[in-house]
């Protein structure tokens, strides 16, 4: 089989260490580590100070902290904080060609050996490259089903070796062929086991009455470059017969690979991968999906559709070989349980694909790059060293990765039993005293006893309260206060701190005071529970020298405007205030008085120093953002201007170029206008009356004409003449002799 990569479908489950990142939280100190080893396991950023005189006698300073905090607190450089690292032990360059008798000198993967030193939670990364070299040796072992259904196929491949060798030598100069065959297990119910079938299981089968005895697997031809030997061996073969349809193909594959029998799919996939064997299933179309599903369970497997007469077998093998050579996928062997691996593939398009360890669409000579990150979740219990292997599926090459764990502190090797630093009553290790039984104290200077319980009250602020206010430990009848990530805890009973005071917008004592034992001590110029109130009124003075422009009150150094409509830092802006227009009038009058040279007039400059002047012919009176002002001048004219407050604090004045002046009304003009209006109204009324009369007359005449046209009589007759004789008809009925009569009498 070809020594080349093929797909592997596997899944790595990675557990992520979630580190709290809340403001003010120090995970190292909150972990309450009591030893260097415990500190290293809390978080990869935590360090342990092993300096002997670190901290204060009256406070418990955590030796497990961030490096910057330890240095700040006086540890210097005496701390343990190992980091994960990578060392490349062997890295031979990739080969460009692979033609050689043994291929042992061909390098398709680099590096070949890497050593990792891992601290739990701390990732380290290394790079590796895989290349499909040109002219790489290929061994093809042809394993054929010789059950009776394959008789026609056997006839079609009599000269397979010659044709296949010709095609494969176009791809590699080092090609070898092997041959084996199988039918099924020679036991019931797989084969015919009755005595009469022992020598010829085809007895009684009319279509093909003669065949060879059934067998499981036969290794017929070892790998060789002699094509004629392959052809000769194929010509010798005869088919056999078995009972059930699924022949013993998996048994034969495992036998051909490692000489083992009775496989499971898991065992088959494992052994093929161990021996860098890529499996090609050549099956008919009806069985394609069945074997396609096996590719997810057997790494390096390719499935191709075989024609009923096997005539496409050569092209099938070529296609499968090209498919195998176009992919590179990493497989992991013997991965430690407590190790997470993260892959990022960089394929031929130059793009990075996080979470992917496979590249496809490669050509011979292309190089696929992978970035591998390793992270230990915890420290191993017993074995401190592990080894695992990264191997491209189907490749002989592999990368051996050795893993050691940084779980032990260097300072732990210098133990001092019964050390004088521990008053002779304990073991000194990594800056701490591990006291012997019945001894207490940071230096093991106190001994436990019945009398000690009575003295613990010396560590209580009052009877019934917790020892050291619950924020320290009582050692030798004295409180040693704990260290807090929020600040300092102090006091004879650890009852005080410098962080439990009132805050303003999250700032302790508003930044204008110091926190002492729960109370803000304000700096000069500030008052209040949280020191947020300034006593300085200079910030409330307006430009005219008035406090808040006389429109509000100065509270804690800020103006609180009370005049409706007033705003600004000193309530200086108020477009709706009654005096808003009067404050700008002086500037406008000065501008009108010195319209020729206002810029040269010192008075106008002083009055208009905070205004931006804009001259206009008309003023928009419905502008909601501008205050409209007008006043009457000495000449009975109306001067109009508008102003708006600018963000810079200045005002924008829009001033008319000329005041609006009216003229006295003319009496003659008014009289003529009134008389003319009356005449026009009279004429209009007469015209309307005349129009109505005309319309009425026309309607009456039209009515007369209509009645006249309806008259119908002859010209010679008198319509007023009446005849002198009149005729009347009376209808009556009477009964005589019971007979009815009507109008006549007999």
From TrEMBL:
Annotated ranges, domain PSI: 27-76
Every Integrin beta subunit VWA domain range: 35-409
Pfam families: EGF_2, EGF_integrin, I-EGF_1, Integrin_b_cyt, Integrin_B_tail, Integrin_beta, PSI_integrin
Main location: membrane
Keyword field contains Calcium: yes
Keyword entries, A-Z: Calcium, Cell adhesion, Cell membrane, Disulfide bond, EGF-like domain, Glycoprotein, Integrin, Magnesium, Membrane, Metal-binding, Receptor, Repeat, Signal, Transmembrane, Transmembrane helix
Subcellular location: Cell membrane
Extent of the signal sequence: 1-24
Transmembrane segments: 670-693
Keyword Transmembrane: yes
Topology of this chain in the membrane: Single-pass type I membrane protein
Highest taxon, organism lineage: Eukaryota
Integrin beta subunit tail domain sequence ranges: 581-666
Ranges of residues in domain Integrin beta subunit cytoplasmic: 690-737
Similarity comment: Belongs to the integrin beta chain family.
Name listed for the protein in its UniProt record: Integrin beta
Organism: Felis catus
Lineage, uppermost ranks: Eukaryota, Metazoa, Chordata, Craniata, Vertebrata
Record gene name: ITGB5
